[in-house]
Amino acid sequence: MIEQSGESPAGTAHESANEFSTGTTIVALGGDDGVVLGADARVSLGGRFVTNRSARKVEPIGERAAVAFSGGVSDAQSVVDQLRTERQLYELDHGRPMPTDALATVTGRLIRTGQFRSIGLLLGGVDESAVYWIDGGGGVMRDAYAASGSGMQLAYGALEGAYEPDRPVSDLQPLAADALAAAAERDVASGDGMTITTITDEGLSERRTNALGREALAGADGASPAPETADEEVA
């Protein structure tokens, strides 16, 4: 399993008191036909005052990958924008989709060379049903499943006894929802609703709910296509 690095968990020690933060819990699980990423929906100011209860913390990077983020909102949005540009440039140069491992390498480099030390990222892609954890120092680690954010220990506790490799994404979706609910039970920076994003060879889809857990997921409307990536044309 992934071990926590010496860096402070994203959304805690690196935040200033007036920074909008998704202290949060995020999870990513690899299956035999794709990957599932999940995140709660709470945003707070300095980890003490809830400012948003319906935030989106899972963003598509093209049609075959997505990233979930915790920590400073502005930093996370900047990284997502840069990753989308890097993907476009790669595909223009190579004429094929950017592999998930290459995208993970680029993500780690952005964290190491930029000013994005207040975030934690989980990256998932469908080419190898890969899950990557990128820490606050830019370290990149691949695993079958991962959790990050202020509620990661609680999420891992829920996943370790339930996750099995090579399961279909339909089985992984409720596991991700349960892990988020378990984290929110004790972690004050996590809660409210959730986003569950699924990536398969057929594309990206997501479900958003106003509550946590598999019951909320089961009661949600059917999966809808993830929002179109706001890619701009790269010269």
TrEMBL record:
Annotated keywords: Cytoplasm, Hydrolase, Protease, Proteasome, Threonine protease
Active-site positions on this chain: 24
Gene Ontology molecular function, alphabetical: threonine-type endopeptidase activity
Region (Disordered): 199-235
Transcription as UniProt keyword: no
Pfam families per the UniProt record, alphabetical: Proteasome
A GO CC term assigned to this protein in UniProt: proteasome core complex, beta-subunit complex
Catalytic class of the enzyme: hydrolase
Reaction equation(s) it catalyzes: Cleavage of peptide bonds with very broad specificity
Protein name: proteasome endopeptidase complex
Originating organism: Halovivax ruber (strain DSM 18193 / JCM 13892 / XH-70)
